[in-house]
Every structure is written in structure tokens, then in C-alpha cells.
Amino acid sequence: MFKSLEEAKRFIEEKSIKMVDFMMIDLNGRWRHLTIPADRFTEDTLKNGIGFDGSNYGFAPVEKSDMVFIPDLSSAYIDPFMEIPTLAMIGDVYVIGVPENYPFDQDPRNVSKHAEEYMRKSGIADEMRIGPEYEFHVFDHVSYSTAPNGFKIDTEQAEWNKNNDEFNLGYKMPHKGGYHMAPPQDVLYDFRSRVAMLMEDQNIKVKYHHHEVGGPGQLEIEVEFGGVTEMADKTMMTKYLIKNQAIAENRTATFMPKPVFDEAGNGMHVHMHLFKDGKPLFYDENGYSQLSETAMHFMGGILKHIKALCAFTNPSTNSFKRLVPGYEAPVTIGFATANRSSVIRIPAYAKDPDKKRFEIRNPDGTCNPYYAFAAILMAGCDGIKNKIDPVAEGYGPYDFNLYTLSEEEKKKIKSLPRTLDEALDELEKDHAFLTEGGVFPERLIEIWLENKRADTKKHSEMPTPMEFDMYYDL
After folding, report:
1. Interatomic CA distance for residues 334 and 400, integer angstroms
2. Is 53 a catalytic site residue?
3. Model pTM score
4. CA–CA separation, 132 vs 370, rounded Å?
5. With bands split at pLDDT 50, 70 and 90, how would you rate the model's confidence at 67?
6. Residue 181, pLDDT above cutoff 60
7. Quick check: 376 and 118 in contact, CB under 8 A?
8. CB environment 223-237: b (16+ within 10 A), e (fewer)
9. Is 212 a catalytic residue?
10. Which of 212, 233, 263, 382 is catalytic?
């Protein structure tokens, strides 16, 4: 938004801004923030940054936790939810050094920037353009605890409210039948439009929005393409806008991959293609599905490393409750055209050279987008560097329904990890492609594994309501 402090200060005065808020990304991909009065925003803020405790962000040990963040003026925006006029911007994390501070190599935003820099220096491409699809649920109520009595969620449009005698106008979303449904069943239409307008105000160009398959309030907003770090920034902003607009309307939004049993889960499909000197690299009129050799090798790298990638693209225990057959979520490792059961799908409708692309369908919204997008890029670069042919490697094309295979046929096709622990095991074995060029520091991989294994341990040790139902009377 701004190119200089002077430009920012003029804007602050013209808009009567009272507070300046700084947003930082923690290890897991949540925004944290710190706020200062607008008149305290000075050249020193940009030069020396503001100190904070990095250990509380999941990065640094307590004995070496002093860090600073330096605001990125280009990321500034007016926060639409704050009562006091507030200008917000993302902060990049730096390590305190002598004589100069230097960028922290584990900071999610720095990892993403380094991945793009690695791609350019390798000569592979100038830019990778990606287009995420944001799927999420909006509920009217949620309550949960870590005690064995479980959780409750509710939304007025859900089919389980057909017999609600307190308030019921009769228009409910069918079970697993919400895809593109119109009002009056689609009671969240105006909510999506309000979110879309907020996104447009923040220069996040909305391609379209609609109700998704999941009957109990599952929605999707798809956006136009942008660079890797740019779209990671916009993913953070989109989640912020959706959650806060829901709260403003006395609702609650979640990107949890599988909040409702026996309904479609929330993915975050990521479309991608490469460009060099402004020209698309993924198009070849004579290639499979009009994909170039470069595109096939990029795809081959992703498919080869997909199990390890899941540790970053699907980093929650709940992620793998979505990656099961029968819900348009991938379970096998392969590629195909127009096949939503494949982990990599090539859209048949994208025919122009500058639109030729493919999407990876396993990621979900619990990921840290900076790490996830950077990891996908590094896997693709490894595929190009080593000329990994996905056909020769046995990854397809699978132009048939992968959900309906016999058990014998399934054994012939490689599968995605079934649990987060499996994905972490794969990352532990296969991460050299991530550390190329120092993009993902080895220490970051170690911290990520430690952090996520702690999640799986907690999850495995906690009795659940389903276990009571299944085993209480044995």
C-alpha cells in the first residue's frame, strides 16, 4: 500500500488513524498482533523494529527468545473491524545481531520469500502464480470441551433441524447436497457477498463464491491468482476477514477440515502455474492435457514428495479425517484431467496457454500458508531439476474414479498418509528437497516435527465421545 514512511504518515493524518497494528505469523500459521499509537510510528520503527518474545510464537528457546519485527509498508490496510481507526500491516521477523539485525530464517514469510528467490536463481521461472480455493463452515453455535462429553455445533439450515419446533421455516440444506444451492436454502448468500466485498477492499480479487457440498453451512470463496508470498499474505487476510465478519453477525466460522461427520470436509485446493519473462511454462498443445514437459516434471516433484508435503499442507490430526474416500477428497497419489478423486487435478476448462495449470487437492486451511505454498514450490522445483516423470514413476494419469477401485486394484496405487503421524514420519525421511538453498532451515524441520508430534500425542491420549460409544459397555 505504501512505498515510504512519509506516504504512510500522510495517509494516517488524512484518515485520522489513531492506532497502528502489526500482525505477525506464528509457527502454526495464526496471526498475532501488537499495537502502538499512530504518533509513535516513526523511522526508528522501520529501521530497528519492535522487540518481542519469539518463544511464545513457537520459534525460539526461552533463553534466546528476544527478536524484533519490522513492518512491511506495502502490506498496510485499514482494519474494517476496529472501533478505533486502525492501520494494520504485516511484520517480518528479524534476529537481533551485531552490528545489524538480520532476517530470521524460520519466519514463515521469510521462508516463502526464500522459496521464490530459489526458483528465480535456479533459472526455472520468474514467478509461480497460485490460486487457492477457501472452503470453510459457518455455524450459528459451537461449544466444546476437552472433557469426554464432547462438542456441539449447530446451524439453522442443517438437515438435522427439520423437526425443530422453536424456529423452523422448512428450508433446509440436504445431507451432502449443498453444492450451489440457491436461496431460500442458501441463508448465507449475503454473508458471503459481504465477505467478498471486504476482500475486494483489501485487493483480494474474488473469482466467485458459492455454497459448497456440505449441507450444514459449508461455503467456498475462490480468488484470482498471485505470487506465492502474496497469496500467503492474502490467505491470512481472508481467514481474518471471514472469522471476524462471522463474529460481527453473531455466527462462527471455522476452516477445520472435518467439523461434521459424514459430510464433506473443508479443503484448500491450490491451483498453480509457472511463468518466465511473462510467458507461461505449463502449456504445450501436444502434451497430455496440453501440459508441457516442465509442467509434468513440476507435477512429478510434487507427487514424489506428496507424503512429506502433507506434514505442511495437512498439519492437523483432523486433516486426515477429511482425506477419506467418498467426500471428493483425495486418498491416492496420482494425477488426471477433470478428476476430483485424484490428488492432482488438471482442470479441463483451462485451455488458454496463460491459464493452463493444475491443482493440488489435499491441502486444507489448518496449514501455515507460507510454509505450505513454499513447500509445494520446492517440491515442484525438485521435479524440474531432476526431470521426474510422473508417468514413468507410476503416478498416472488416472482418468477414472479412484474411489470405486477394488481392494486388489487399490494395492497397486500409492496412497496419501492416513494420519498426521505418518505424514511426519515421511517428512523426517524426505526433506532434503526443502532444505535446498537453505530455504527451509534444518532447525525449522526439527521444530515442526517436535511441535506436531506433541499434537498427535495429546490427541492419541485423550478419550473421545466416540470411544465411549464404542467401548464403554465392553
Report:
1. 11
2. yes
3. 0.84
4. 13
5. confident
6. yes
7. no
8. bebbbbbbbbbbbbb
9. yes
10. 212
Q: Is 220 a catalytic residue?
A: yes
Point out the catalytic residue in the list 72, 92, 140, 220: 220
Q: Is 251 marked active-site?
A: no
> Is-catalytic flag, 224?
no
Whether residue 31 contacts residue 21, with contact meaning beta carbons closer than 8 Å, is answered with: no
Catalytic-role residue among 53, 201, 399, 446 = 53
72, 79, 92, 135: which one is catalytic? 135
Q: pLDDT tens across 68-127, in order?
A: 889 999 999 999 999 999 999 999 999 887 778 888 989 999 999 999 999 999 999 999
Active site residue 222: no
Q: Which of 359, 364, 382, 426 is catalytic?
A: 359
33 catalytic per annotation: no
**Three-state SS across 260-276?**
CCCCCCCCCCEEEEEEE
Query: Is position 340 annotated as part of the catalytic site?
Result: yes
Q: Summarize pLDDT for 391-431 with one digit per residue, the tens.
A: 999 998 887 777 777 777 777 788 999 999 999 999 999 99
| Cβ neighbours for 12, distance < 8 A, ≥ 6 positions apart | 20, 38, 41, 87
Strand partners, 218: 137
Active-site residue, 127 included = no
Q: Give the residue among 52, 64, 63, 62 at the shortest CA–CA distance from 93.
A: 52
